[in-house]
UniProtKB/TrEMBL annotation:
Pfam families: GST_C_2 (PF13410), GST_N (PF02798). This is Glutathione S-transferase. Residues 86-204 form the GST C-terminal domain. It comes from the Bacteria. It comes from Fulvimarina uroteuthidis. PROSITE patterns: GST_CTER, GST_NTER. Transmembrane segments: none annotated.
Length: 204
C-alpha cells in the first residue's frame, strides 16, 4: 500500500487526488508547517530533500509531484490519465507536466509571497505571469482541459499553482483560466482529496 507524506498546504494534494480518482487504498501521513512556512525536520527522515509530496511504496521512496503522478498512474492506473505512449499527444502532455513546475511556477510563487508578506511583485515576474496566463487562455479557448475533453495528469499537476494564483489575487483577471480552475475544483476526486489533506492554500 502506498504511503503519502503530506505537508499542510502542499503539492501532496495532487497525489492524493490521483489516488482518489483511481480508488486506490493509501495511508496518509500529515505534517504541519513551521512558523516560517517550512516543512518540519521529520520529513527529512523520509527523503533527504525534506519536502512534500513523498510516497513510499514497498521499498520505493519517490519525491517530485510529476514523477509520482507518472509512477502511480502507470503502476496502478494503466496509464489512463495520460495519452498513449509514443504519440505526439503523449509528448505534449509531458511538456505540460514539466511546464507547471518549470516555466509557470516562478511567477506564481512570486505573487504568493508578495501577497503573504504584503509586498509587490516585481515587473519582471508580472510580465512573465501575464505571458503564462495568455498561453493557458489560448490553449483553453477550444477545450475544457489542457489536452482536450477530459482531465489528465497535467490538469492534476497544474491545479496546485492555479489555487496559489487564486489565493494570491492574481487569477481573477484571467477569466478563461479561472473558469478552468473552477472546473477542476468541482471535480469529485479533488474535493475528496482536499477533505483528506486539508485546504490547498492557507488564508492570506
Amino acid at each position: 500500500m502506498i504511503t503519502v507524506h503530506s505537508l499542510a498546504f502542499s503539492r501532496a494534494v495532487r497525489v492524493v487526488w490521483l489516488l482518489e480518482e483511481l480508488g486506490e487504498t493509501y495511508e496518509l501521513k500529515t505534517y504541519a508547517r513551521t512558523e516560517a512556512y517550512r516543512a518540519p525536520p521529520a520529513l527529512k527522515a523520509i527523503h533527504p530533500l525534506g519536502k512534500s509530496p513523498v510516497i513510499e511504496d514497498g521499498g520505493l521512496v519517490l519525491g517530485e509531484s510529476a514523477a509520482i503522478l507518472r509512477y502511480v498512474d502507470g503502476r496502478y492506473g494503466g496509464h489512463r490519465h495520460s495519452p498513449d505512449p509514443g504519440t505526439d499527444a503523449h509528448a505534449i502532455h509531458d511538456e505540460w507536466l514539466d511546464f507547471v513546475e518549470g516555466s509557470m511556477a516562478r511567477s506564481v510563487i512570486a505573487a504568493f509571497w508578495a501577497k503573504k508578506n504584503g509586498g509587490a511583485v516585481e515587473e519582471k515576474m508580472r510580465t512573465e505571469y501575464a505571458t503564462i496566463m495568455a498561453y493557458l487562455a489560448r490553449t483553453l479557448a477550444d477545450r475544457d482541459f489542457l489536452m482536450g475533453g477530459r482531465p489528465m495528469l497535467a490538469d492534476i499537476q497544474i491545479s496546485y499553482l492555479l489555487a496559489m494564483a487564486e489565493a494570491s489575487g492574481v487569477l481573477g483577471d484571467h477569466p478563461a483560466v479561472l473558469a478552468y480552475f473552477k472546473r477542476l475544483e468541482a471535480m469529485a476526486g479533488l474535493r475528496r482529496a482536499v477533505a483528506r489533506t486539508g485546504p490547498i492554500m492557507p488564508p492570506l
